[in-house]
Amino acid sequence: MLSRTGTALRGMPVAATRLGMRFYAQLPLRVPVKMPNGIEYEQPTGLFINNKFVRAKQGKTFEVVSPATEEEITHVYEAREDDVEDAIAAADQAFKSGVWSDADPLVRAKALNKLAELIEEDLETIASIETLDNGKAISSARGDVQLVANYLRSCAGWCDKIDGRLINTGSTHFSYTIRQPLGVCGQIIPWNFPLLMWAWKVGPALATGNTVVLKTAESTPLSALYVSQFVPKAGIPAGVVNIISGFGKIIGEALTTHPKIKKIAFTGSTATGRHIYQNAGANLKKVTLELGGKSPNIVFADADLKATVQNIILGIYYNSGEVCCAGSRVYVEESVYDQFLEELKAATENVKVGDPFDDATFQGAQTSQMQLSKILKYVEIGRDEGATLVTGGERLGNKGFFVKPTIFGDVTEDMRIVKEEIFGPVVTITKFKTVEEVIEKANDSEYGLAAGVHTKDINKAIEVSNRVNSGTVWINTFNDFHHAVPFGGFNASGIGREMGIEALENYTQVKAVRAKLTLSGK
Ligand code: NAI
Ligand code: MG
User: Fold this and answer.
1) For residue 488, is it left (φ>0), alpha (ψ between -120 and 50) or beta?
2) Ligand 1, closest atom to CA 193?
3) Rounded distance from Cα 29 to ligand 2 centre (Å)
4) Closest Cα partner for 144 from 319, 312, 267?
5) Ligand 1 in contact with 272 (CB < 6 A)?
6) pTM tops 0.85, yes or no
7) Known catalytic membership, residue 446
8) What structural domains does the chain harbor?
9) Among 38, 40, 91, 209, which one has the highest count of C-beta atoms within 10 angstroms of its own C-beta?
10) What are the pLDDT digits (tens) for 348-403?
11) What's the CA gap between 406 and 299, in Å, rounded?
């Protein structure tokens, strides 16, 4: 048996849970898991260090819960500072050996392509693991895993294109630059897109020749461990990729302060991002941060009403609203406001919420009890602030962390539900009269991750895109990602960009070489 506090107990009892996995005296490094859709697989539970799954040194484990059923799926080993040391030592040694950083770039490309292939071939199992652990709808999870494969392939394509430049400084010298990797990168990811965030971090770091120690989020460690078994199969040498499960305050802290870590890449809350930035600053590490948001989604009267309603739905209820760039503030031009609200309400009440393993489900479970409580608390806050609850606003059922898709109307810009990131299926809706007014409202936020503009007028679309303070603007679409298009935030939404060519800049440093030539003197 495993104790709730997480230490593997001695003894022999073997008990079966409803999900069909068995517990042993000491947590095995692989446990059988049967998922609600019938797929059975072996879940690695160890820390992935030096291309092997190993037990945490102190033998601690923690529980992994399915948010749709609130039942335990398994335990996994919990890394502590001593394990972090091991992981960093492995990554450091691999980096210094040059086996990865100095290899022909096509060696890295081949391995990343193979990794993409292995993941794509196993898409259904991986998507199901993501759904089991995170609670997201299986259709969304399949999309995530496909984006993972696409992005790894895109990174593979960059491997042999990371060039410096030749600089003309006259005939007495030969001057050029090269782009070199940074070394060991510490990467910390959240739970809303566990494997996609893994890919956004690992892909560009590996393409550019770095080695990594990545910490998954404590509520969703399973998919990254599962795909770790493909790392050696893809031909990636030992020590290049190290994956550790554990808690932010313990090993997140250890990673962000460790002198051998040259760069920190983080996705998560703005509060934690701020803290990490301070840690990294004190140690002069390079940092990229992808943080929170409160993204405006602007609807002009001339927009295609039906399509726009669907885009607003996608903007806020996709992934159960647990999306950093969720279009959580909707602004609608006054002349169509009443009609739009009516249609949005009807479409919202039609969103299929529930069993994430049902192909027809659009909105699955929230990831944790903590998120469920946070969302319901914001509903209370909205009511207290005097906003009108148009629909939703309550938990769905009493088992699993489900929330009814929620719209608040009659909001004012100073309300907390308009200002703060809720990170759930809750949207506010406001009227506007002019372009000027809506831009002012859209930009009245500490954040600046994304924005949406819905109109048939190209002039209006481009003007608003130019003037809105956000790292991404979607026109007549939303939450529409592509591996070649960079993503990241203005202001409190972050630093640096992921995906696209921009992501590579975060993982290389420029070396300038200037050779004085001995000329023939003719
Ligand atoms: P969090 O930002 O604390 O957690 C994200 C990751 O950071 C996890 O892996 C966690 O273990 C790690 N972490 C926590 N404290 C750390 C520390 N001191 N040093 C290093 N790493 C640390 O976010 P949390 O608590 O899971 O969620 C709270 C809120 O954050 C959510 O309700 C949501 O509003 C926001 N959030 C935003 C995300 C985004 O994609 N921008 C993702 C997840 C959460
Ligand atoms: Mg979980």
Assistant:
1) left
2) 40
3) 18
4) 319
5) yes
6) yes
7) no
8) 16-290 (3.40.605.10), 296-482 (3.40.309.10)
9) 91
10) 999 999 999 999 999 999 999 999 999 999 999 999 999 999 999 999 999 999 99
11) 18
